[in-house]
């Protein structure tokens, strides 16, 4: 059941992230290839004069493209860690609910610390 839920969440997430990466990469390539003449011509089509289009605009677009690509890369890099964390969370919760009393008794029996520390710790857990 948990596997089905994870697959329902993971597969669409992977497809969305792949699409974001492709779009961000294409945007970054486009922004890096754009020259100031291209930008001037683009803005003149909207009635904006050439003086208004300066290096600041071009630099902004390049930085924005870099930000999008870096953000998508960080998201992709952290996704396996998040998925593993969720899996471990559900795994521990399942066995904690199913075998909780046995785990408590086993912990009480095999915990390698002094008895007064063990009692204090087990009172906090219980």
Which bin fits the share of residues in helices? over 70%
**Radius of gyration from the alpha-carbon trace, in angstroms:** 27 Å
- Strand portion: under 5%
Q: Would you list the SSEs in sequence order as H and E?
A: HHHHH
The N- and C-terminal alpha carbons lie at a distance of 29 Å
Give the rounded overall mean pLDDT: 76
**Low-confidence spans:** none
What can be said about the biggest beta sheet?
none
Tell me the structural class. mainly alpha
What is the count of helical runs?
5
Total beta strands:
0
Shape: elongated
Question: How does this structure look, described?
Answer:
The chain is mostly helical. It is 85% helix and 0% strand. The chain has helices at 2-33, 36-44, 55-98, 100-110, 115-125. Helix 1 packs antiparallel against helix 3. The radius of gyration is 27 Å and the shape is elongated. The two termini are 29 Å apart. The model has no long low-confidence stretch (mean pLDDT 76).
Topology:
Elements: H1 2-33, H2 36-44, H3 55-98, H4 100-110, H5 115-125
Helix pairs in contact: 1-3
Features:
126 residues, mainly alpha, elongated
Q: Would you summarize the structure shown here?
A:
By secondary structure, the protein is mostly helical. The chain contains 5 helices and no strands.
